[in-house]
Design a protein that fits this description.
Elements lengths: L3 H26 L1 H5 L3 H6 L7 H7 L2 H12 L3 E5 L11 E5 L5 H10 L5 E3 L8 H7 L3 E3 L4 H17 L4 E2 L18 H9 L2 E8 L1 H4 L12 E6 L11 H22 L4
Parallel strand pairs: 1-7, 2-5, 2-6, 3-4
Antiparallel strand pairs: 6-7
């Protein structure tokens, strides 16, 4: 019989080591495609709001995400609704519920995109941050109103001129996988004002892969993503009702994703 406190401590250390090893593997998996053709070189030779799809292909960003999600994290991913994805995605905004940092890898795979509205911290991640920026991701500082406003403007311009950006209206990750009651509808309201079509997405299961507490990593989890048809803002009389309809659709798609995993 061992000491329970020691066993718990050893288990916690093992979990943190597992998280660190897998996170390092995710970063290293992206190195070859950013060095074969140096990422800074392709960034200098292209310009923001037009280069994103080119750099996504040149540096194999989506195949990298697919490899990380399915091989390194061993996620069993079930995606339905890809036929609703616009080609090209310019003129659209993607919105989704948010459960985990792993959502980024899963949605890159499911949506064939690299562009997200994200907090500034991600920008400083080795390899990942620079690739995200080059693929169209917009970064903001949560506590600064000016930064949030500038990021929203850049996001909407990105959607209008280059590629659709994924926005998480909940603003933060769900701790239990449930849809959060409070959301930030501004992006959807502005999409209505600017005539951007919104593609709703519901996902479920990533909170079990890498929970909000970030203290463990569970491999081999099932994750479901459901993609709905684009909502046309011209069908709603104002931005508030358009935002409500968009989020109601996300909630319904989340329910479908839960059902696909055998949850009520």
């Amino acid at each position: 019989m061992g000491n329970p406190d020691i066993r718990d401590r050893d288990s916690g250390v093992a979990q943190w080591l597992s998280v660190g090893v897998r996170a390092t593997a995710v970063v290293l998996a992206g190195v070859p495609s950013t060095t074969l053709i140096p990422l800074p070189l392709t960034q200098v030779c292209t310009r923001r709001f037009r280069r994103e799809d080119v750099l996504k292909r040149v540096h194999l960003m989506v195949p990298w995400a697919r490899f990380c999600a399915r091989r390194i994290l061993e996620i069993d991913l079930d995606v339905q609704g890809r036929e609703h994805l616009p080609q090209p995605s310019r003129g659209h905004l993607y919105i989704s519920n948010h459960q985990s940092y792993v959502d980024i890898l899963v949605l890159m795979d499911a949506l064939d995109t690299v562009a997200f509205l994200s907090k500034k911290l991600i920008h400083y991640f080795p390899v990942l941050g620079r690739c995200a920026y080059c693929g169209g991701t917009v970064f903001m500082q949560r506590g600064k109103k000016e930064s949030r406003q500038a990021a929203l403007e850049e996001t909407l311009r990105m959607c209008q001129e280059s590629t659709a950006v994924v926005v998480f209206p909940e603003g933060t990750r769900s701790a239990d996988g449930e849809i959060r009651e409070k959301i930030y509808p501004r992006a959807m309201q502005e999409a209505w004002r600017r005539g951007l079509r919104v593609v709703p997405i519901g996902l479920h299961g990533t909170h079990r892969v890498f929970p909000k507490t970030m203290d463990r990593l569970n491999l081999g989890e099932h994750v479901a993503v459901r993609i709905g048809p684009a909502l046309d803002p011209s069908s709603w009389p104002d931005g508030d009702r358009f935002a409500e309809a968009c989020w109601d659709t996300v909630a319904d798609l989340h329910h479908q994703a839960r059902a696909a995993l055998g949850e009520a």
